[in-house]
Amino acid sequence: MAIGLFDITAPKERPVELALQAARRDDAGYYRLVSLRVEAGGDAAGWTEFHVAPAGDDAFPGTRERPFASPARAVAAVRALVAAGLDRDVRVIFRSGTYELKAPLVFTAADSGTAQHSITYAAAPGESVVLSGGRRIKGWQPVGNGHWEAELPTVKAGDWFFRQLVVEGRRAVRARWPDEDGVLHLATVSDEVRSFTFDRPLPGGDLGSEDAELVVYQNWSVSRARVARSDAERLTTATSVGWIGHGDMTTASPGKPAFLEHARAFLDQPGEWFLDRQAGRLRYVGKEGGGSDPCRGGGAGAHPLDEDHGHAGTPGAEPAL
Ligand SMILES: [Ca+2]
User: Fold this and answer.
1) What is the value of pTM for the model shown?
2) What's 150-202 look like in SS3?
């Protein structure tokens, strides 16, 4: 079934905006209207609107002309309306750009709309909005062989550790072995599914102190476990690998493909990275030609906000936005 997308907006000087959002072509060949929105804009039409823009200011009132700067400020403004009792719908409109969050955005019942009035957070029509939990990493230094390093005192202090690095808008590869064009295979697996041998010797000596992980491709899932210790012949993980007790389909077993991830010894391909927790040093292998080094790329962002902020909550307390 064909779906047509339209975005028709009246000129700014006219008070009414018309947006024909989607139309669907039925079997007879007619386009069927899915949703039609006619907006008069903000309070005049019976809803409250807040605007957020990267060039805004949290001291501003959050209007279209004087927008907030941060999503958190908008959430606080909405929360105040909820606390006072909603008497109309609320919309928060984000202008295009990347919003770097200093803390997770957490929504609770205190942010909720009601059965009568909704709360909507949305990008401005046709604009691209990114909410990023990344922290920009600065101070990259070349250390030879096309490698770059950045000192991260917060990592060394034990206050930060991350598993993702974004360079030039793309998720970089945690240093791995074998590289993406190959795998190794499990040869033997202990009864408790924590001790393994492979079809070839392992590099890197004892990987137990490097936050290395064993990744195993199961039949319809991928398992990973922290490496507790290893040598060239045998590797032991901190936990059992797979969904144990569910048969070979989901449990690491001889013959399954696997790879190792995150050790200094695996840094041999452009775009790979490794975070030395003890030293507080992040190392990145620059891409050939130098055009993609993290310095020239405008910095790299690691994403520390992947913690689970879900709330068990009480029944009926989930926010309705
Ligand atoms: Ca590698």
Assistant:
1) 0.68
2) EECHHHHCCCCCCCCEEECCEECEECEECCCCCCEEEEEECCCCCEEEECCCC
Distances (CA, A) of 190 to 236, 237, 257: 10, 11, 16
**CB of 286 within 8 A of CB of 146?**
yes
Tokens of 52: 């957020």
Structure tokens at 210: 């490097």
Residue whose entry in the numeric block shows the structure tokens 């520390």: 304
176 C-alpha to center of ligand 1: Å? 4
Q: What mean pLDDT is reported for the chain?
A: 82
Specify the amino acid at residue 144: G
Cα(143) to ligand 1 centroid in Å equals 18
Element (H, E) at 71: helix 71-84
Structure tokens at 190: 């202990």
Tally Cβ neighbours within 10 Å of residue 49. Answer: 18
The 10s digit of each residue's pLDDT in 26-64 is: 555 544 444 434 344 555 568 999 999 999 999 999 999
In sign, the C-alpha dihedral spanning 51, 56, 62, 65 is: negative
CA of 174 to the centre of ligand 1 (A): 8
147 alpha carbon to ligand 1 midpoint, in Å? 13
Q: Decide which of 21 and 107 is more confident.
A: 107
CA atoms 19, 54, 141, 264: torsion sign: negative
Give the distance (Å) from ligand 1 centre to CA of residue 301: 21
Burial of residue 263 (CB within 10 Å: 0-12, 13-18, 19+) is buried
Pairing mode, strands 129-132 and 97-100? parallel
Which tokens sit at 184?
A: 């190794």
CA angle 68, 12, 19 (to 5 degrees): 90
Among 280, 282, 214, CA closest to 252? 214
Q: Please report the pLDDT score of residue 306 as a whole number.
A: 41
